[in-house]
Specification:
Blueprint: H1 2-16, H2 25-59, E1 74-80, H3 84-95, E2 103-110, H4 114-124, E3 130-135, H5 144-155, E4 160-165, E5 168-170, H6 175-180, E6 189-191, E7 194-196, H7 206-225, E8 237-240, H8 241-246, H9 263-268, E9 274-276, E10 284-286, H10 292-305, H11 312-336, H12 342-369, H13 379-399
Parallel strand pairs: 1-2, 1-4, 2-3, 6-9, 7-10
Antiparallel strand pairs: 4-8, 5-10, 6-8
Length: about 400
């Protein structure tokens, strides 16, 4: 009886399922639209993502290969705020940089922390190119970091200023060389890369945060590579000192606590005056990531500041996200509304395989280039849900928008 029932069900299913190349106009339209989405994403989205890893590979050099390059005099500005221990680890790596031109290191002590002062004073006994300035605790109704950077840049005596923070980790003695080698005639800004140490983040949602951090970096780095720069990372950024004063410093964002690495950079950069440095020895690690609350604060801050800077690159990636959802919707319709013909469903599955194999391939390469956490099968989920994730944080940033203003 059971055997008869199984044979009957099998014969019935085979009878209703067909495999036919003869498609209706509706089926052709569905498959054509699905194919267009897949090809567009493979050609443009994957190419944009891969541009970061490709740029790193094509422009990765060793100082030995550029030993004859003329380097500008440089001033490294280190922003320090109650992080004396981190500063003690950073300063020796900065002061011993292999740089065959004049350079100095200026520590800006935000709040005049005594521990920071003591560390700098001890090291000044051994290095005559180390200097210290500070911002008083009494400074109010302004951005303390912008004030600190302005004081540091004013104190700088050299042609180029290279910005970082006390909790940065510079892993190579060639970092300064690699950043400053880009200052050829016409280049005023060099966009570097800094990443948060993913090993420090082991809490819930760590993989999502790693993906989002990499996505943020990809968006602004790929834009700069495509000669559409609009932001950078304040832990690894350089520009000419006279460019800062020529553009009146941070005058257009004095009402905001932040914006020194996005609003200001968006204003001073253009298609021809900006270079990107992604050599592995020029990458800086941020060694301060100890909980997800800091990440949330940075995320809401970036989304808040995004209203004041160019949105060309973010809109492009918004289009990509929209097309991923269009592809998903078309695939579902093509599978469930073209049955019992199996041919459209097979085509849709082949296209899906092509899309995600290419997407995972380029993402794995760029995550490696950006020193990020290795992700694989969670990437499709993160890509599809990224617009929702950003929307949630954008709404949160509006609830706490007053925190971003200096008058709050």
């Amino acid at each position: 009886m059971i055997e008869f029932f199984c044979n009957f069900v099998g014969d019935y299913c085979i009878g209703i399922m067909i495999f036919s190349f003869q498609l209706t106009e509706f089926e052709i339209l569905l498959l054509g639209a699905t194919l267009f989405c897949v090809l567009f994403l493979v050609v443009f989205y994957c190419r944009r993502i891969a541009s970061v890893a490709r740029f790193q590979k094509d422009n990765c050099v060793t100082p030995e290969g550029l030993s004859g390059v003329a380097l500008p005099s440089a001033s490294v500005i280190v922003y320090a705020q109650d992080d004396a221990d981190a500063l003690a680890r950073l300063l020796p790596t900065l002061l011993t940089q292999d740089y065959n031109a004049q350079f100095e290191v200026i520590v800006v002590n935000d709040g005049a922390d005594e521990a920071v002062n003591e560390i700098v004073e001890k090291m000044q006994l051994h290095y005559n190119n180390l200097y210290l300035t500070f911002t008083p605790n009494e400074a109010r109704n302004l951005s303390r970091k912008k004030l600190a950077l302005t004081l540091g840049i004013k104190a700088a005596r050299n042609e180029v200023v290279v910005l970082t923070c006390a909790d940065a980790v510079v892993g190579s003695s060639d970092w300064l060389f690699l950043m400053c080698r880009n200052f050829k005639p016409g280049i005023e800004v060099v966009v570097g890369y800094a990443y948060m140490d993913a090993c420090r983040d082991k809490g819930r949602g760590a993989r999502r945060r790693a993906f989002d951090s990499a996505m943020t970096a990809i968006v602004y780095l790929s834009a700069a590579i495509a000669r559409r720069p609009y932001r950078a990372n304040g832990y690894n950024l350089a520009y000419r000192r006279d460019t800062f004063f020529k553009n009146k410093g941070f005058s257009n964002s004095l009402n905001l606590h932040y914006g020194d690495d996005d609003i200001f950079v968006d204003r001073i950069t253009n298609r021809t005056n900006t270079a990107v440095e992604l050599s592995p020895d020029a990458i800086v690690k941020i060694d301060c990531y100890d909980d997800k609350s800091m990440y949330k604060e940075l995320k809401m801050r970036d989304l808040f500041n995004s209203r004041f800077i160019s949105r060309r690159s973010s809109r492009l990636f918004g289009l990509f996200s929209f097309l991923f959802w269009v592809w998903f919707g078309l695939s579902v319709v093509a599978i469930f509304f073209t049955l019992p013909n199996l041919f459209p469903s097979i085509v849709v599955l082949v296209l899906a395989l092509l899309l995600w194999v290419m997407t995972l391939f380029v993402w794995r390469k760029v995550l490696c280039a950006l020193c990020s956490r290795r992700l694989l099968f969670t990437i499709p989920y993160f890509i599809m849900t990224q617009p929702i994730y950003n929307l949630i944080y954008r709404l949160r940033s509006r609830r706490f928008r007053e925190r971003n203003y200096t008058w709050h």
